[in-house]
Amino acid sequence: MNQITLENIMLICQKCFSYLDARIDDHPSQVAYLYWRLLDNRGTYSKKELYDLVTIALLHDIGSYKTKDFDKFLNIDSPSYDHAIYGALFIKHFSPISHLSDIILYHHSDYESYESPYKPETSLLYFIDRMSIFFNYSWQIEDFFLSLNTEIDSQFISEFHEINRKENLIDNIQTGYFKQLLRNFFAKSIQSPENAIKYLSMISYTIDLRSECTVLHTIMVSAISNFLAQKMNYNHSMVQKISLAAMLHDIGNISTPINILEKPGKLTNEEMEIMREHVTITYEILENLGIQEVQEYASYHHEKLDGTGYPFGLKKDQLSIPARIIIVADIMGALMAARSYKESFPKDKIINILSELAAQSKIDQSLVDLVIDKYDDFCQYLSSLSNPYHKFKNEYMSIVTKMSP
């Protein structure tokens, strides 16, 4: 699979945040930039440790994809803790830097209220996070410093002033130049395919977990696509691309209102138009991945072989077999899923619907034949997979109970 760097991860995160709320568009990268410069100037971290910690800073508010509680999120005096809990769990269960999840969990907590092996790093992130949020209200940085009064904050203030004199940190943020500096830093961190897939899957889960039905659908489509790709005897690299594209195929749902995603009945024409926008947004977001095949496979999942699909109206000769796999997997996943308005369809009904679509030249007949031939094998394969959603949900409730006053 093509090389993916932390710069690709950063750009995808920025694009996703831009669809949520303009007020938080630059906040994650501001925090990551300042965190990087203060940690780097200490000279006590290896390159690997520095990349991991700055990535944590970039992702520190990734739980806000789930909560979307931005008024509390941006409130210096009374921040929301839900996004910190969700963010920590996303990092712990889905990322290659799970050992740093406590930094996110406690990044809004007072120094004396928790224990962690990364307490100094957590406290610094807390300081920088508040500084960045303060920038939403005023660029008078001294006003922010005057609002602080702890011994720990005083150490950070001195450290910040020293580095700001050398590197013009505030000027770089005001002009936007910090983004290029941060991109250059992350561009040098090439990720293994396994780690890249973990990061990207985590982003997909954080978006899909806004709605239980969407995250379960993504898990299902990814599993079906992986199974079919293996049965088509693709090599390991191509199976990775197809599985990754399937995992990311609905990333554009970040722009879709929850009331539409979870509507129990048929969508109105207006709601359907809004829903359909997620495909073009998926295409836009995945431009930042730098792997054209994955971008196309993921974004073509509502196309049809006869040209009646959307958003591009592609026809048979424009849709590769990997793209067709995800088209079939998306339909099959929807048919197999239980929703508030329907039960999971039985095997015979699913096969009949897929066969009818193939007969109408909507989807690939050879893939439908493969599904029919291997249907029982697939169901056995699916039952062997763990469902990360339920474990995640249970642990969230446990942490909320533990952290409640």
UniProtKB/TrEMBL annotation:
SUPFAM superfamilies found in the cross-reference section: HD-domain/PDEase-like
- In this chain the HD-GYP domain maps to 192-387
Q: Which Pfam families match?
A: HD, HD_5
* Spans through the membrane: none
What is the protein name for this chain? HD domain-containing protein
Record lineage: Bacteria, Bacillati, Bacillota, Erysipelotrichia, Erysipelotrichales
